[in-house]
Amino acid sequence: MQITSIKTSKIPNRVWITFSDRSFIPFFIDDIVKLSLVKNQEIDESKLKLITKTALQFIGREYALRQIAISPKTEKIINQKLKLFFQKTILKYKFNTNNLNLSEINQQIIKELKDRKLLNDQDFIDYFVKKNHKKSRQQIIYSLQQFGVDSSLLSSVEFNQESDIDKIKKLLNKKNIDKSKLTDFNEKNKIKASLYRRGFNLSDINNAFDDWLNFR
């Protein structure tokens, strides 16, 4: 195997390495110097493994940084996104990963992000609560748990001033439900079940119904 060309990319700090088998990979320009890579260089299997690993670390890190720039992320979310990203990238560039530990590369990228304070559960909580302010508190807490938020932070989650009862009444108003439906046992239970599936507590649903009917 031989490196047939090293060309700069339109993307800053990136170059393209092309090999004698016509395969090519994106590479961090500083890593070219670190690994002493030059055009027409002969590379053996161990060198190719190192080049591949370094390339995956670079493009994986760049991908993770773009994801965090869009919105705060937890370690679990980034880990899952990186796994999917690497699957697509390996197919796209036809990387030979037989002797590579992708999980290890994943964890190395996550460690770098944590060292730079870019993975912060509290930032994610604040973002998620604000984005999902219409959802029930119970549903928000459950979702945060699923996203891998540190459980010790969940007891101090700060919600906006609007209660779940007020949220339910807003939903009832938005749906413009006729009052007669709430006097029908079956219809009322259907609406309750729908709200319950949204994560609202039954006691809040009942209280909201009482308030809403009186208000109407």
What's the SSE blueprint?
Layout: E1 3-8, E2 14-19, E3 24-28, H1 29-34, H2 45-70, H3 75-93, H4 102-115, H5 121-131, H6 137-146, H7 164-175, H8 185-197, H9 202-215
Antiparallel strand pairs: 1-2, 2-3
Helix pairs in contact: 2-3, 2-4, 3-4, 7-9
What does this structure look like?
- This protein has helices spanning 29-34, 45-70, 75-93, 102-115, 121-131, 137-146, 164-175, 185-197, 202-215; strands spanning 3-8, 14-19, 24-28.
- It has 3 domains: 3-115, Arc Repressor Mutant, subunit A (Orthogonal Bundle), CATH 1.10.10; 121-156, no CATH class; 164-215.
- The chain has a 3-stranded antiparallel beta sheet with strand order 1-2-3.
- The mean pLDDT is 84.
- Helix 2 packs across helix 3 (75-93).
- It starts with a strand and ends with a helix.
- The longest helix is centred in the first third of the chain and has 26 residues, at 45-70.
- Strand 2 and strand 3 (24-28) form a beta hairpin.
- By secondary structure, the protein is mainly alpha-helical.
